[in-house]
């Protein structure tokens, strides 16, 4: 049996098992999770494994069209990160309640290295707002990067794997995505540190590790495989059944997709325990957990699923965050204009 065929078979088995296990967990939450305020976010997170597994398998099998499937996977990654953040916010009572809770807590310092560049964010509304903006910025950046990837690929200037080639878009996109993803995960870590005591009842650590490992680990894993291709460890000399069909970059891309297919079964098991239905049957969340919302689990399943795939809340959050950023810029510009030297007196115009 050729290595190529064996790889397809193994990845298909792992993909099928991942989808079945995650599908069972999704069905359990869809039919039994009584906390409607957080249910849609949990379902969106659980959908990561089957979407990652299926798109990676399709990218592996239909290698010539892999950018389409990888774009879907990458876009959903940003969507899942947003959902995880708002799952935590809703559990903690919403942004207003959370801001009031944080005002009485000890100041959270920036982590090693960052504290020399950025002052601590005051606990309260500003802390909630800045962590939200830091996480949400990853969504438009990821979507824009995916769009640029498709366009540059069609124009022949993408250059997958050519990280050091200044005439190709791949290196620039990797740099921007690395910064954006790292900042989003950093803000999520700060949020975790600031709300750790309040999150203890819902066992936050396994949930944080589950979401961060899928997003962070798979990304850096693909970067490592690309690096192995650059240094020549992965080359066209690998005998995978069709030497004329597989270039070094194609082998590296296929290897990345194959490994993700295998890993998703592991992450499906992790999700099964990290987001166990038992944690939500007795959940004492602080927001929208009254009897009316708990009885909503009896509503039509199709309505629940449509609520899961409805991205209107994501669009509204991005628009709101953009408005807050623009408002801050306008306030800074107004302060600058207020203290601008007068062209007539060359003195500072002080506010009345």
TrEMBL record:
Q: What is this protein called?
A: Transmembrane protein 184C
Report the locations given in the UniProt record.
Answer: Membrane
One Pfam family, short name: Solute_trans_a
Q: How does it sit in the membrane?
A: Multi-pass membrane protein
Membrane spanning residue stretches: 6-30, 42-63, 83-102, 135-158, 170-193, 214-234, 246-270
Does the record's keyword annotation contain Transmembrane helix? yes
* Record's keyword terms, sorted: Membrane, Transmembrane, Transmembrane helix
InterPro entries hit by this protein: Ostalpha/TMEM184C
Source organism, top-level taxon: Eukaryota
An annotated GO cellular component of this protein is: membrane
Main localization of the protein described in the UniProt heading: membrane
